[in-house]
Amino acid sequence: MEHPMYSLRILSKGRVSDLSKGFTLGGVPFSVFVRPKKASMETNILMPCKLICDKESGAFPVPLGDWTPGAIVSISPNAISLADYEIYWGAGELIK
Fold this sequence. Notes:
By secondary structure, the protein is an all-beta fold. It contains no helices and seven strands. The model has no long low-confidence stretch (mean pLDDT 89).
């Protein structure tokens, strides 16, 4: 599988404010930081998403309070409750 290489450093970022239609950066891989809005003993959640080499979406373990190492290209619609969690995305740049 040949895919463009992206910098491992987070060079752009933002907050996911709506998951009703899912979330994507138009094919650019990104990482996510999931922050619980209330104190929790949980250390991770399963997030339905598609990674850069996946053919379809599926459950992917995402740590809470840390950046995931996965190269995500899309988050499925309503994958995580935005009433319970804040989700931030971070992406690198294409290595030429």
